Structures are given as structure tokens and as C-alpha cells.
Amino acid sequence: MEDPGNFGESGESREIAAMRALAGGDDSALNRLMDDWSPRVTAMIYRMTGNASVASDLAQETFVRLYLTRARYRPGNSARPFSTWLFGIAANLVRNHLRWRGRHPESPLDDADEQTAPGDPARSADARERGEAIRKAIATLPPDQREVLVLAEYEGLSHAEIASVVRCSVKAVERRLSHAREILRRELARFLQG
Q: What is the pLDDT of residues 121-166, one digit of tens each?
């Protein structure tokens, strides 16, 4: 019996099968993609913005954009696999949000809804302190460095995939990652000792 979640041909990824179905008019395929990818997209956006409410809103917008551009996706394009395409949509939305936020400073009330990252389990006080210090250090990185760091460290994308998402050269990705890691080493030195 075929797994109902595996609706593609043998050897075809769930994402490609869902995108084919979505492009063919099966709107329920969007729900399958959201079920599979929404937690990762939301977590990535949260790490880039530091705001759970914004992350949730931008993740939803990511899937709206995915739906609107479904016909442009080329399944099986090894130069731009589904994850890179989806994270590219999310990264563009985050960049737009950060530019907008730069022109419209937040009021103190805007920070009232910040909370821990979606899905974070309860942790010990030391682990929470370390986690908070890491989150704050990442939040201080310039947006271009934060973006490549999140995509590399949290999403596990290769340098080539990151270059495709952020539309720059692999060398630029490597430089941004190197600078980001150096800043984090300095900022988190007390946690790295001992």
C-alpha cells in the first residue's frame, strides 16, 4: 500500500511531487508543503528577525508567495532545489521586512510579543542563558552576515545553495560567514571558555 503522504512517482521527492500537483491545480498540495516546511521556514525567519510574531507572519507570506509563483518553479532543477527556492522566497521577505523596519523604527510595544523560538523545549538555566546570548549575538550581526549564518548553521545549506538564495557569489558567502563567525567568537568568548 502506498503511503498517502508520498504522492509522487518513485524517486521523486515529496516537494517536487507537491509542486507538480500544486501547479496542476491541486491546491491541497500547498497544505502538504506547509505541513512539511512551515516549522523550518518559521524557525529560519525567527533567527533572522528575532521576533516570533514577525516570523509567523512572514512564514505565512512565504507560502502565499510560493502559491502565487507555483508555475515558475522548475522541478528537478539541480541548480536550485526546492529548499533553496523556498528559503530564497523567505529570505527576500525578511530582507524587505528589515529594510522597512529600518525606515520605521519600532515602538516599545512592538517588542511585547517577542517570545522564545517556536518549538523550543524547556531548558536548564545555563542552557537558556547561553541560548539567549547566542540569539542576541546573532541579532547584532549585519543582516547580510546573519542571513548566510542562519542558512548555513541552522538550515544546513551548502555555500553554493546559500549563494543562490542570497544572489551573490560563493566567495561572498564564504567572506560573510567568516566575518559572522569571527564576530560571534568575540561576542560569545565567555561561553566558549571552559
A: 544 677 777 778 888 888 889 999 999 999 988 888 889 989 988 8
Residue 193: closest CA among 137, 177, 185, 183:
185
Within a domain: residue 5?
no
Which of 120, 150, 171 is where one domain is finished?
Answer: 120
CA 59/CA 122 separation, integer angstroms: 24
Q: What is the pLDDT of residues 17-72, one digit of tens each?
A: 899 898 899 999 999 999 999 999 999 999 998 889 999 999 999 999 999 988 88
Domain that holds residue 163: 124-194
Report DSSP letters for 105-144, one per residue: PPPGGGGGG--SPTTPPP--HHHHHHHHHHHHHHHHS-HH
Using the CB atoms, write b or e for 125-143: b if 16+ within 10 Å: eeeeeeeeeeeebbeebee
Specify whether 72 is located in the same domain as 138: no
The answer to whether residues 89 and 70 belong to one domain is yes
Where does a domain end: 92, 120, 148?
Answer: 120
CA 182 vs CA 138, 166, 177: distances in Å: 12, 21, 8
